[in-house]
Amino acid sequence: MRPLFVTGTDTGIGKTRVTYGLASGLRKRHIQTQTWKPVQTGVRTGTAEADSFRLKWGSGAEEEEAHLVSVTLPDPLAPWMAARRRSMKLDYEQLVEEGRQRASQTDLLIMEGAGGLLVPLTEKQLIADLAIDLEMSVLIVARAGLGTVNHTLLTIEAARSRGLQVAGIVINGMLATQRPEVQENREMIEHFGQCKVLGLLPDVQGEPETTSPADWQSWKERWDEVCEQNLDWTLVLGLAKNAGM
Ligand SMILES: Nc1ncnc2c1ncn2[C@@H]1O[C@H](COP(=O)(O)OP(=O)(O)OP(=O)(O)O)[C@@H](O)[C@H]1O
Ligand SMILES: C[C@H](N)[C@H](N)CCCCCC(=O)O
Ligand SMILES: [Mg+2]
């Protein structure tokens, strides 16, 4: 299966939540799915804020948290600058090689980016370049409110102009799911973006701020159910199998 790159129209848009929800739902459907965060910034591993921790517990991964992330940097910045502040350089070729290996070891590799599509990974490469070199298709997580149509269409256009295939959109964090604006946004994104919205996820508070396994187990069950009910799993399976998208 072609690996999947989860990006967003911005940072803090819900990529991690969507990534672990997808991985968990696909595993239930007997698709061996691994998640990977090549570079996380602004966190420490082993804490409830770290994407690596959330990906592990939210998806129910058996691997150690450390296996789900390649580089963790403390400054909450784009990877290039977060590395430069620490007098480091990220080894881009090594990330590409690692991504290839990871993709070959599972049915579906889902890579979570850092921030949006054009965030600098190194002095020379954007996060989009890693997705291109790994021949990934792209899933875009978008915000629910006013302004999201423009941001989403910009991201779709930037992805396609670089040769990336857009597999679909997930609109995340809606407070008022019943409002007509939500469906109208979906319609405008599908119409001008020429791609499918795979689902509209509601605002659900309660992701644990602790590292307690019991808290995470009950949260995972809750978020799994939200994803079960609000994502079109026929479409998700189609993109996982790379059919018809
Ligand atoms: N549907 C939702 N309802 C309520 N809160 C949400 C929802 N989705 C995400 N959040 C919260 O918003 C915050 C940002 O979400 P998340 O960390 O998944 O974003 P991200 O795009 O992965 O960010 P980053 O760019 O840092 O990787 C988190 O605290 C998360 O729990
Ligand atoms: C620290 C944050 N949560 C992300 N991991 C990094 C976001 C970088 C965004 C850069 C930008 O687009 O201005
Ligand atoms: Mg994240």
UniProtKB/TrEMBL annotation:
Positions with a binding annotation for Mg(2+): T16, D51, E112
Keywords annotated in UniProt: ATP-binding, Biotin biosynthesis, Cytoplasm, Ligase, Magnesium, Metal-binding, Nucleotide-binding
Annotated localization: Cytoplasm
GO function term, MF aspect, one: dethiobiotin synthase activity
List of residues binding ATP: D51, E112, G113, A114, G115
Catalytic site: K37
Superkingdom: Bacteria
InterPro entries reported for this sequence: DTB_synth_BioD, P-loop_NTPase
Top EC class of this enzyme: ligase
Primary location group: cytoplasm
Pathway of action: Cofactor biosynthesis; biotin biosynthesis; biotin from 7,8-diaminononanoate: step 1/2
Cofactor: Mg(2+)
EC number: 6.3.3.3
Binding residue positions for substrate: T41
Catalytic activity: (7R,8S)-7,8-diammoniononanoate + CO2 + ATP = (4R,5S)-dethiobiotin + ADP + phosphate + 3 H(+)
Known function: Catalyzes a mechanistically unusual reaction, the ATP-dependent insertion of CO2 between the N7 and N8 nitrogen atoms of 7,8-diaminopelargonic acid (DAPA, also called 7,8-diammoniononanoate) to form a ureido ring.
Family, as annotated: Belongs to the dethiobiotin synthetase family.
Subunit structure: Homodimer.
The protein, known as: ATP-dependent dethiobiotin synthetase BioD
Protein's organism: Marinicrinis sediminis
